[in-house]
Amino acid sequence: MGGTLYVLTVSQGNRRDTQQNMKGCCGGVPGVPGSHGSAGPLGSPARDDRDGRDGTIGEKGDRHETGAQGGKGASGKIGPKGPKGAMGIQGGKGDLGGKGEKGEATQQLNWKQCLWKRDDSKDSGLIQECRFKKKHGHTALHVAYGRTLRINCAVCCSRCFINFYDQECTGPMTIDAVYYTHANNDIHRHRQIEGYCENIPAGDVRVGFYVGKCSSYGVTDAYSVWNSVSQIMIAEMPPAQQ
Questions:
Q1: Residue 68 to residues 53, 65, 158, 213: CA-CA distances in angstroms?
Q2: How far is Cα 171 from Cα 208, in angstroms, rounded to an integer?
Q3: Which of 119, 155, 130 is nearest to 228 (CA)?
Q4: Sign of torsion, CA 96 102 104 108?
């Protein structure tokens, strides 16, 4: 069906009047619907397991303290003994060591006691002899004599001493004692003399107890053995320390 299309321009102010005029004036039919517009852009995809809204981050939990250390466990069983290792290579011969210091004599105690009981009023000379077997040349002899001694005079002195091979000791000194009185008291007392003598060779040694006069005095009335047991003690000892 042909016809002429009229385009009517209507301003904003007289739109209403124009519509009314068109209805009453012309009685035209509605126009053809326009075509569909183009599709809009796709929306962003939804997040997995969410309803589209970001939730707030929860507060950080409290940190727990480290617990106390547990007790020591029981010891395990001792394992089996391992196999014996192979013998090592024999080492070379070592250097010869230096000469060691001279050691002290190692010996059993060597001693002797000579005893007798008799009266002896001798004023000078040998009273008793005791023989001793000395084992070593570098040792010393310890000699002791004990019994009742006395002198009987107004003013006098008597000397008792020990001899070795009929000679007095010179290493280090003589072994002796003196008895002096200035009244006729005639006192009898037990007395003892003793000492050490060195530089005596090994072998048989004759040890004798003697009585004699003091220096500046003559022979006096001595009573070296009276009504008691007499003894000479001899022992071999290591040398004294210097």
A1: 45, 9, 95, 97
A2: 17
A3: 119
A4: positive
Place of tokens 């617990």: 67
φ and ψ of 215, to 5 deg = -65, 135
Average pLDDT along the chain, 242 residues, taken 10 residues at a time = 48 48 52 71 61 65 76 84 85 82 69 92 92 96 88 86 95 92 75 93 96 90 80 92 74
Q: Which residues pair with 189 in a beta bridge?
A: 149
Tokens of 210: 């003697």
Question: Which pLDDT score, from 0 to 100, does residue 11 have?
Answer: 46
Q: How far lies 121's CA from each of 20, 179, 224, in Å?
A: 193, 15, 6
CA distance 234 to 138: 16
pTM: 0.54
Taken in order of first residue, the domains within the chain and their CATH numbers are 110-237 (2.60.120.1340)
DSSP string, 130-153: EEEEE--SS-EEEEEEEEEEEE-S
Antiparallel, parallel or unpaired: β 189-197 and 167-168: unpaired
Sort 207 into a burial class: Cβ within 10 Å, 0-12 / 13-18 / 19+: buried
**Cβ neighbour number for residue 225 with a 10 Å cutoff:** 21
Helices (H), the chain: 15-25
Number of C-beta neighbours around residue 2 at 10 A = 3
- CA 116 to chain centroid, in Å, comes to 56
